[in-house]
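hey all, quick one before standup. I had two proteins in the batch that finished overnight and I want to keep them in one place so we stop losing track of which output belongs to which input. First protein below, input sequence then structure tokens straight from the run.
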Amino acid sequence: MPKAGIIYNNAKPVASRIAMELQGKFHTVGWDVFLSTGINGILGCSSPETPVCYTPIQGLAPPGFDTDMQFAVVLGGDGTVLAASRQVAPCGIPILTVNTGHMGFLTELYVSQLPHAIEHLLTGDYEVEERTMVNVQVLRENEVLWEALCLNEMVLHREPLASMCHFEIAVGNHAPIDIAADGVIICTPTGSTAYSLSAGGPVLLPGVPALQLIPICPHSLASRTLVFPNEEPVNIVPVNTSRLVMTVDGSGGCYVIPKDRVYLERSQYITRFIRLQSPEFFHILREKLGWGVPHIAKPTSMESP
């Protein structure tokens, strides 16, 4: 019996209702269906009192979600998609993302398009687009205190009312660099349209094999975004007397105290997005972010002087 999954945001009544309806539809056509809420993929938050507070990357898959599952339907907004990506990536399960939220930058379609999409799912008539992910670890004397699988970005920043942060950052085997700023962002091409964009970073097309380092409000005209190959691991050591806060994909994270080290590397796991037609990234940029929309009328003809 073929097997499918449904991950939904149970805080949204419409997502919960559609999840139940989809489960019934799949059962009717002879599919085995497993349901899970996106909350299982939300990252835990550790603290100085409880520094180890996380689920290992390989342990986030919900019951019934494994390599035999052909696909999963994700119902929610971008936060649910990010949580779902952590849950299914280690199993290699492709996801069809349905927007029941607001922006829905990472979603493939709207609820009204779902009946047509299900027909394509059941017949296997779709493409799969692969997106790079990053493993993030916080280490103290080489002991892993916290780890997460990241699709968008890792942010390391100061707490409210704290002073400026100082970071020693080593990319691959290159010489370490010093950055003074409110914080730093390491993001994937997928995350280049999220916090990175707001912080002044460039947009990267999803297929570009690169990561970005973006200082947040740097105290130097020379500290600007760095784009580097995604094969290069990154080590970040905060040179501060006070603790910092780290978040991954805007979900959860941990405190980083002096002498801790943050280590990032491209993950062996990827997010596999189901596309019902060939991906067109510029169309998404135009529809969601208004990129390339003309603000003045184009000339209708060129007249000789």
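OK second protein, same deal, sequence then tokens:
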Amino acid sequence: MSIFDEVVDRNNSNSLKYDTARYRGIPDDVLPMWVADMDFKAPQPVLDRLDEKVRHGIFGYSDSDDRYFNAIKNWYADRFSWSVKPEWLVKTPGVVFAIGIAIRALTNPGQAVMIQQPVYAPFSGMVKKNKRQLIVNQLAYHNQTYQIDLDDFEKQIIRHQVKLFVLCNPHNPVGRVWTKEELTAMGEICVRHGVYICSDEIHQDFVYAGHKHEVLAQLSEPLAQQTLTCTAPSKTFNLAGLQVSNIFISNSHIRQKFKNELRASGYGLLSVMGLIACETAYEQGQAWLDELLVYLAGTISWLNTYLSQHIPQIRMIQPEGTYLLWLDCSQLGLSAVELDQFMLSKAGLWLSAGTSFGQGGKGFQRMNIGCPRSMVQKAAQQLSEAVRSLS
């Protein structure tokens, strides 16, 4: 039995995933598999260090030191062969927060910011809330996979004078881990037209066999000079509630503009618990993560087989990365509203509506499998029964 088979009761723990259903008009008895945090306890060394800090009893203003940076530096060197420098690092409470800071630092109101939908909903939200023009390079869906329309990518940049491109790699929700060739092609276009890139690489540690995460900023020096690399331990080690992310910006001019905007936001020092958790996870969490990746791959394999055998009307887009599955439910013949209601009322599943990810999301649902396999199996059985009831 794996440590990840343990079912931890998260009810009444102030969990966004479990405890907010009634406030959102969601039935209390549904299985929550929507928001992207996991139902697994953080690595034991992280829990031990946090416990040590709690017993110390003082939670004053705190900052990181050389040990913190070295933990991050060694992680990226070992797993991605990427050598980062201390001066590149800017800490923020989260990646979405950092994207908002980047938008304000590098563009002016009314200027164009490009994203690739279907994509994580806060991307478009950050663009619109900061009164920038939202431009979409729609991902092309063919044969149950997604590709980048590079011709449209460049045309959109030229037509709208795009100033900033927000990249998602590995991609949430479609599960692509963009190849070196794909990233280089997009990067060269951005360099050619002077487009800044905010690269959200928060899911970089969730990559499955046969695929490799490429750090965009590592591909060329010109590309590095236009890129902000957004990372965090939050997805990897299930630390989202501790509010810590690490943004790497090698271009000193861009970094200073980012820092100026960060100061203007009024945000300063991070939570001491977040700093401790991040440092410890990167120092001692590798074995835990390696075991988790094997577990998740097993869950994906099980579910793919189950869907093929019992629910062929729903097709899983084979994920190359992330623990978020993109389910093509278009063969059910339901409208977007009907599909959302079907999942909640008939299947008893609280998934993420495909339309929340923008263009191309109609007919899809996103399922979070970062939970014990028994929960995924229960969800699959409920879904199978619900689909049978349609016929």
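Flagging for whoever picks this up: The first strand starts at residue 31 and ends at 32. Residues 286-310 form the longest helix (25 residues).
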